[in-house]
């Protein structure tokens, strides 16, 4: 019975460890050393509790030049009414955006985007509405970019191909003429290696990720993110490489399963020995 208990404890733990190791070797993307977990200080409004922060690395920025890609046309119509920021946090709606060249998709993005700023020690949020956002961009062999334009602003992602992997090397944001703040917010983070993924694969992250665009004044929150640039086959995402943050969920789940199995085994062993002792008393 002792062996049974030992096996019951070790098997779930080994399965969890093997699963995590297998998934990590097969799909876990490179994570920059500058990406660390953060919690925004000095705030009384709700914030995402699982985030990452990006700071500059030593990567070299590559700009898109001399490409023959055509801009992606859409049927969305942008209005000139400036959006209003709200002090109340809510998760942004997930949108789907594509950039095409010669009727073939060369950048594919599914994500929810929120911009938030700090004014007078108070945070204000703006969720980018997918239905009122126009996607366009250009694609090249070594660099591509997608720009998402919405009412009085835009978000631009630049992708770089290093031969084996691709990553986001630059993010630019503009949020202009807010009704309630009457201020323009601009910022660019360069020289980064964000969401590094094997060519032909797609980057996916369900966790919330925050990028510091302009120090202490402008941030971008990404949720339900799946991205791919270069080597897109049939207009569909390639093999998924999940972000590191999503893997942190496996540990508590495995621990809970192992604990549950252990409790069940202890109960079974207890009932077994109790029954044997009772049977012995009956024989006497």
UniProtKB/TrEMBL annotation:
GO terms for biological process: establishment of protein localization to organelle. It is found in: Endosome membrane; Lysosome membrane. Residues 1-16 form the signal peptide. The chain crosses the membrane at residues 249-273. InterPro entries: Lamp2-like_luminal (IPR048528), Lysosome-assoc_membr_glycop (IPR002000). GO terms for cellular component: late endosome membrane; lysosomal membrane; plasma membrane. Residues 92-232 form the Lysosome-associated membrane glycoprotein 2-like luminal domain. Its main location: membrane. Keywords: Endosome, Glycoprotein, Lysosome, Membrane, Signal, Transmembrane, Transmembrane helix. The keyword ATP-binding does not apply. It is a single-pass type I membrane protein. It holds the Pfam family Lamp2-like_luminal. Belongs to the LAMP family. PANTHER family: LYSOSOME-ASSOCIATED MEMBRANE GLYCOPROTEIN (PTHR11506), LYSOSOME-ASSOCIATED MEMBRANE GLYCOPROTEIN 3 (PTHR11506:SF30). This is Lysosome-associated membrane glycoprotein 2-like luminal domain-containing protein.
């Amino acid at each position: 019975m002792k062996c049974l208990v030992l096996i019951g404890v070790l098997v779930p733990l080994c399965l969890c460890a093997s699963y995590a190791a297998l998934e990590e070797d097969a799909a876990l993307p490179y994570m920059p050393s500058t990406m660390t977990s953060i919690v925004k200080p000095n705030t009384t409004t709700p914030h995402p509790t699982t985030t990452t922060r990006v700071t500059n690395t030593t990567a070299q920025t590559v700009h898109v030049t001399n490409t023959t890609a055509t801009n992606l046309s859409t049927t969305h119509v942008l209005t000139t009414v400036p959006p209003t920021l709200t002090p109340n946090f809510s998760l942004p709606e997930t949108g789907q955006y594509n950039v095409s060249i010669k009727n073939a998709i060369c950048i594919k993005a599914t994500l929810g985007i929120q911009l938030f700023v700090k004014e007078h020690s108070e945070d204000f949020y703006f969720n980018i509405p997918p239905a009122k956002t126009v996607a366009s961009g250009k694609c090249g062999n070594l660099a591509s970019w997608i720009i998402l334009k919405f009412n009085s602003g835009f978000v631009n992602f630049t992708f770089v191909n290093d031969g084996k992997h691709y990553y986001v090397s630059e993010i630019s944001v503009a949020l202009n003429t807010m009704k309630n703040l009457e201020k323009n917010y601009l910022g660019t983070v360069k020289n980064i290696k964000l969401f590094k993924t094997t060519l032909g694969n797609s980057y996916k992250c369900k966790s919330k990720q925050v990028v510091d665009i302009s120090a202490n004044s402008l941030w971008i929150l990404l949720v339900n993110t799946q991205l791919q640039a270069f080597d897109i086959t049939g207009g569909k995402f390639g093999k998924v490489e999940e972000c590191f943050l999503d893997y942190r969920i496996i540990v508590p789940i495995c621990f809970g399963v192992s604990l549950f199995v252990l409790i069940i085994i202890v109960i079974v062993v207890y009932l077994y020995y109790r029954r044997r002792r009772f049977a012995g008393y009956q024989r006497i």
